[in-house]
Amino acid sequence: MAQKYKEFENFIQRISQYKTLSIIGLEKNTGKTTTLNFIMKALKNKKLAITSIGRDGEEQDAVTFTHKPRIYVKTGTLVATAKSMILKSDATFKIIGVMDISTPLGNIVIAESITSGFLEIAGPSTKEKIKAVIDALKKCGAEFTIVDGALSRKSFAAPTVTEVVVLCIGAAFSHNIFKLVEETENLVSLFSITKADSKVIELYEKTMKETRVAFVYEDYIEKSHANTSINAYKEVISSYSGDLKYVFIKGIVTDKFMTEILNSDFKVKKAAFVVEDATKVFMKKSTYDRFVLKGGIIRAVDNINLAGISVNPWSSEGIVLEYEDIYMKLKNEINIPIFNVKQFDMDVIE
Known about the structure:
alpha/beta; Rossmann fold; 11 helices
């Protein structure tokens, strides 16, 4: 147990260096809200702020109709949520401001809790609006802002949204430990894509202002007229030559995209692929492993800072996986803090 406390302490020490954090999950009900509550309690000495991508913190899951843990805020916590959620909370809030950001549940308001209690939050559903909300919370004095992901959309782990990320996994994703571990390892591998060097990033940013795909050869650059990167693999394949150095992509790289390239005469070890960040890469583990085995290289303009993995061995169907088995399998491959917050007595951590 001492090692498990150390894992969580290492995680808290790591995220304490930053000011913004996203919580994402492999699936719904993998423990995002529980993890959020524990992080807030562990960081009680900071001026905390929370918001959400979409709706979260409700008592009952809107899809499965199962009981869900609720978000608990202490006095002095800043929140950014739809106005109707403030009115439903059993905590009392002081409204600081109303933002020009609408949701199906009303405009986003910035408020501060003057009593503790449970809260349901409903935030914006786009990265641009989330960034605007984070900026507004900072101006109101937030020292650490947590973005709670209501859905399993890894795009909200993008470094343009928050500085650091925690990934929640568990039995809700799969009752098969091997499948759960494999998918987690694959996502961590993708999140670990190396950042491109500064000269390549500078060239990428200059080149990709008005195009989705570009080819950097030894002596010139050719820009694609494709409207999206999704089906651009045909052009990528036909554009290959021995002096191709980089394929710049602004958009997503799908499994089909890379599979088509791997099945062609394109020499992936000769030309590196450069993407915006790892959240744009959607490859199966088998495809990614094959790409790497062939000498393929992917670099990112921005890298993702994955600070820890929170494991929830329980599922709403009543299945309980063996946490120690998950922990040991992941630890053999992943060198970041892994923890199960339900194992901890927070009074001890405090």
